Amino acid sequence: MGNNRVSLLKGLALLSLWAAVSTGAWAQEVAAQALGDAEARALGRHGLDLMMDGNLDRAIEIFRDIQKKDPQSPLGYLLEADAVWWRIYYATANLTDPDVFAATDLPSTPYDAHFKDLVNATISKSEARIRAQQDVARNYLYQGMTYALRARLEGLRDRDLPTARAGRKMRSLLLKSLELDPNLTDAYLGVGIYNYFVDTLSAIVKILSFFIGLPGGNRVRGLQQLQMAAEKGDLARAEAKFYLAKDYSRPNERQYARALELFQQLANEYPHNPLWPMLIGSLHCRMGNIQECETRYREVYRMTAGENAEVNQALRRAARDALQRRHPEEKLEE
């Protein structure tokens, strides 16, 4: 009887110890998950900085690392889709034009299929987490940002109806995320772009509103929302500054000095990306500062010499073409 009592006490002690250990492990796991999300966004910010600095390959490596560490999270897929959008932009857009609608005649690129796969994966994973009631507001944000990328690609191709449909879905999801968590200032990037363009493209909007019931926008509010995202955004801060600068450079705004200031800030933050001096040069051309314009174009042409990265090659071609148009008699190396 005594031995049985000792065994029982030992068993209860071991059970208590197991419970304490397992409870502690569970608490650590929960804490690790919470830390993991913050860590993933910190990694994401680092990757986005590299992306805006023109290093797409290294940025994509970081975004894929996020996918491996948390394959059920939409974040890594969303960020890689963003990087692929930029890859398409560099490959096809008019890089000497700071206007937002840098449309291309190319119907597709070799990157399109992967972009579509990443968009679909992000939407699926964010929907799964919303159904599971996991960080619902943030997953509405990620889903809305994904539809924003879809709209941006369609806009790059000058496809009005698909752009409007994706934009309408984006707006609904981002407003839902803000309703649940007003601190998700990244949402103001997409909402601001929507408000600005729906209010400034009135002829197109009237037609699209008839077909798909496109909600109205507000130009002034859109600029204010982009400013908020540019100042206080988490993941979207730099891209919000990029789009805000582009909006200020548009013919209906003509706020070239403000656009120039923002592009210069981007050039200071991301000094290895030739896109920023290229856009600064283009703005100087619009402002009539021809000497400064050409100086910037030649700066881009020089800094990209001998560079193999696709971003540098694309900007070198753009700088060469811009200089050749101004000086057709000048012989410039390929």
Notes on the protein architecture:
The protein has 334 residues and is mainly α. The chain has 14 helices and no strands. The model is unreliable at 1-35 (pLDDT under 50).
SSE blueprint and pairings:
Layout: H1 2-52, H2 56-69, H3 75-92, H4 112-131, H5 136-156, H6 160-180, H7 187-200, H8 202-212, H9 219-232, H10 237-249, H11 256-269, H12 275-286, H13 290-303, H14 310-326
Helix pairs in contact: 1-2, 1-3, 2-3, 3-4, 3-5, 4-5, 5-6, 6-7, 7-9, 9-10, 10-11, 11-12, 12-13, 13-14
The gist of it:
With 334 residues, this protein is mainly alpha-helical. It has 14 helices and no strands.
Mean pLDDT: 87
Within the CATH hierarchy, at the fold level, what is the topology of the largest domain? Serine Threonine Protein Phosphatase 5, Tetratricopeptide repeat
Indicate the CATH class of the largest domain. Mainly Alpha
Percent range for β-strand residues: under 5%
Please name the fourth-level CATH homologous superfamily of the largest domain: Tetratricopeptide repeat domain
- Indicate the CATH architecture of the largest domain: Alpha Horseshoe
Give helix and strand order, one letter per element, not per position: HHHHHHHHHHHHHH
